[in-house]
Amino acid sequence: MSSRYCVDYTEQAAKSIEDLGYFDSRLVLSWIDKNLNGCDSPQVFGHALADKQAHATLCGLKLLDENSEAWCYHVGEYHLIAEIRSDLRQILILALRQNGAANSDDAAK
Predict the structure, then answer these.
(1) CATH topology of domain 6-100
(2) Out of 45, 63, 67, 81, which could bridge 95 as a Cys pair, Cβ 3.0 to 4.6 Å?
C-alpha cells in the first residue's frame, strides 16, 4: 500500500474552485497539486480544526467520518476545508472559502 496521499473533491468544492475564474482557480489547483497530492504528511501544510462538526455544518455538509480529521489550508486569499482520512490515505477537499467570508456564496457577491 502506498504511503502517499491522494486528493479528491466534493461536488461543492469542485464547483467553488471552478467558479473562481482562471487565475484564482489555477492558483488553488496548483497549490493542491504541489503540496497535497502525493504528499506523505498533509498535516504540515495546514492546521487542524478542533470542532469538525461545526466546520462540517459551516460547509453545509454532513458530519465528517468519525475517524477522519478536519483541516484548513490557506491558499492565497482562500481557505480550503478538508477531511484527512489517514486509513485511506485520502485528502477530501470539502469546501473553499474566501478569507473573512462565512459563506462562499457571500464572497462571490
Answers:
(1) YaeB-like fold (3.30.2310)
(2) 81
